[in-house]
Design brief:
alpha+beta; five-stranded antiparallel beta sheet; about 15% strand
Length: about 220
């Protein structure tokens, strides 16, 4: 087994512009290994720029938002892209590859989701285990199933270690309610970067997936 997990996203935009993003996650904690980033970081990456209401971090110890600090080049590349544009994306993992001709916002959200849960945000960290079995370009049904399966697996280990498992999923909604606060604040943060709507709607799409999970739990729609 290697010491890292690799996800590579290759994007081909309508005008012929190409760009690849390689994400390396360190085992076993799934921490995103830093890559060279342009300095200085843009102002919208500062922690106190549209800081999330539920963020426990302090500017004195963390001058930059941990998520934002990892994505300036990513955001800049898609700064002029519109959500409705069709692009080609190829995602390569250690096990297999995925290819799809899809809308820009969907392609961006698939990659952005990895950045958001592996960069060290204390709120998004709760979703980090899902990255180990990342499913690129997942549907809402696939995402709901993966979220519930991962949570119930966690409860099994809680039970095995002598704790009290949450088999009824009572605490799961609170996790996704906190995630939604981060998603919505992050949209406001990205607005400060004077970008087009593709990056913004990529986060909106992630937030919609979180909302679908909450609705499923609230209405009994899982049945």
């Amino acid at each position: 087994m290697t010491t890292t997990i690799n996800y590579r996203y290759d994007f081909l935009l309508p005008g012929g512009q190409e760009r690849s993003f390689d994400l390396l996650l360190e085992r076993p904690g799934l921490d995103l290994l830093p890559t060279a980033t342009a300095e200085p970081l843009p102002p919208w990456t500062r922690l106190d720029c549209c800081q999330c209401d539920n963020c426990p971090l302090r500017v004195e110890q963390h001058p930059s938002c941990p998520i934002a600090a990892n994505i300036p080049e990513f955001v800049e590349f898609f700064a002029d892209a519109a959500s409705y544009e069709k692009i080609d994306v190829r995602i390569s993992t250690d096990e297999r590859s995925y290819v799809k001709h899809t809308y820009t916002a969907e392609a961006i959200s698939s990659l952005l989701g990895i950045y958001m849960v592996t960069s060290g945000c204390p709120i998004m960290d709760k979703l980090r285990p899902m990255v180990r079995f990342h499913l690129p370009l997942a549907t809402s049904e696939e995402t709901t199933f993966r979220a519930l399966a991962m949570y119930l697996m966690a409860q099994y280990f809680v039970s095995r270690s002598g704790g009290t498992p949450d088999w009824d999923l009572r605490d799961l909604p609170q996790i996704y309610e906190q995630v939604q606060i981060v998603n919505r604040s992050f949209v406001e943060r990205l607005r400060q970067s004077a970008i087009h709507d593709a990056n913004l709607n990529a986060v909106v799409r992630l937030d919609a997936l979180a909302a679908i999970i909450l609705i499923s739990l609230d209405t009994g729609a899982l049945d």
